Amino acid sequence: MDDKANPPKKGAGERKDRLAEALRANLQKRKAQARSRRVGDAGHHAPDPDDRPEGLSAAGKMHKD
Predict the structure, then answer these.
(1) What value does the mean pLDDT take over residues 38-60?
(2) Distance of CA 37 to the CA centre of its chain
(3) Cα atoms in the Cβ-side hemisphere of radius 13 Å centred on 63
(4) Is the Cβ–Cβ distance between 40 and 46 less than 8 Å?
(5) In the chain, what are the domain boundaries?
(6) Cα–Cα distance measured from residue 47 to residue 44, given in angstroms and rounded to the nearest whole number
(7) Whole-angstrom Cα distance, residue 40 to residue 46?
(8) Residues 3-47: tens digit of each pLDDT
(9) Cα(37)–Cα(29) distance, rounded to whole angstroms?
(10) Residue 40: what pLDDT?
(11) For residues 59 and 48, what is the distance between their CA atoms, to the nearest angstrom?
(12) How many CA atoms lie within 13 Å of 47's alpha carbon, on the beta-carbon side?
C-alpha cells in the first residue's frame, strides 16, 4: 500500500510515543518480576524444572472423574 494515501493523523505521533513508553514500563516491570522469581523468597520458591523426572512415567496414572 502507499503510505501517502493515508497520512498519519495529527496526534498519531504523540499516541505512538505514549504507547511506546507504556510498553517500556511494562517490560521493565515484567523483567523485575522475573528477576524476583529467579532469586525467590527464602521460604517459598518454585521447584527447579531440571530436578523434575522426565517421561511418561512421571505423569502417573490418569484418574477418571
Answers:
(1) 64
(2) 13
(3) 1
(4) yes
(5) 9-37
(6) 9
(7) 8
(8) 566 666 667 889 999 999 999 999 999 999 999 988 765 455 566
(9) 12
(10) 67
(11) 17
(12) 5
Give the span between the Cα atoms of 1 and 36, in whole angstroms: 45
> Measured between alpha carbons, how far is 45 from 32 in angstroms, rounded to an integer?
16
Q: Are 34 and 26 in contact (CB under 8 A)?
A: no
Whole-model pTM over 0.70: no
Alpha-carbon distance of 29 to 35, in angstroms, equals 10
**Phi, psi dihedral angles at 49 (to 5 degrees):** -60, -25
Reading the block at residue 17, the C-alpha cell is 510515543
- Count the alpha carbons within 13 Å of 6 in the hemisphere toward its beta carbon: 3
Query: Which set of grid coordinates corresponds to residue 48?
Result: 527447579
